[in-house]
Write a structure and sequence with these properties.
The chain is an alpha/beta fold. The protein has helices spanning about 20, 25-40, 55-65, 85-90, 130-145, and strands at about 1-5, 45-50, 70-75, 95-100, 120-125. Pfam families: DHquinase_II.
Length: about 150
């Protein structure tokens, strides 16, 4: 199957950025982990990071037109603000898992609100890069059950 991984703003700074919250792995490290896992599970993986909301909206539309089967998304700060990204996922009906590296429930109160969780297949947070790997494994199982 085809799986798209989308990463929101500031995630290009992983490794440098507040390692107490986000760990020491860079986004390139996470990309390598997932590409290896996807190859092993025989999926085609596309991996993106964008700082701009409209570019993420366009990537969701692109995923739809390319008939992408599943999305794994860490919307980063847009989690707590973006009706536009939520609407793009609702409009395209691409099933998705929401991932956060940090435990958003153990931080500032504004991080407890998500525009994605109620329409996600599932939500993973607080497990660092492992959360992305678990999301890919879950996507694999969800897709396998459908066929
Ligand atoms: C994040 C959590 C968000 O609250 C924050 O704005 C991020 C990263 C995470 O992966 O833990 O940028 O999505």
């Amino acid at each position: 199957a085809t799986i798209t991984v989308l990463n929101g703003p500031n995630l290009n700074l992983l490794g440098l950025r507040e390692p107490n919250h986000y760990g020491n792995k860079t986004l390139a490290d996470i990309q390598t982990l997932l590409e290896n896992q996807a190859q092993h599970l025989q999926h085609k993986l596309s991996f993106y990071q964008r700082n701009a909301e409209h570019e993420l909206v366009e990537l969701i539309h692109q995923a739809y037109f390319e008939k992408t089967d599943f999305i794994i998304i860490n919307p980063a700060a847009f989690t707590h603000t973006s009706i536009a990204l939520r609407d793009a996922l609702s409009a395209t009906k691409i099933p998705f898992i929401e991932v956060h590296l940090s435990n958003v429930y153990a931080r500032e109160p504004f991080r407890k609100q998500s525009y994605f969780s109620d329409i996600a297949q599932g939500v993973i947070c607080g497990l660092g890069a492992t959360g992305y790997e678990l999301a890919l494994l879950a996507a694999h199982q969800i897709l396998a059950e459908r066929h």
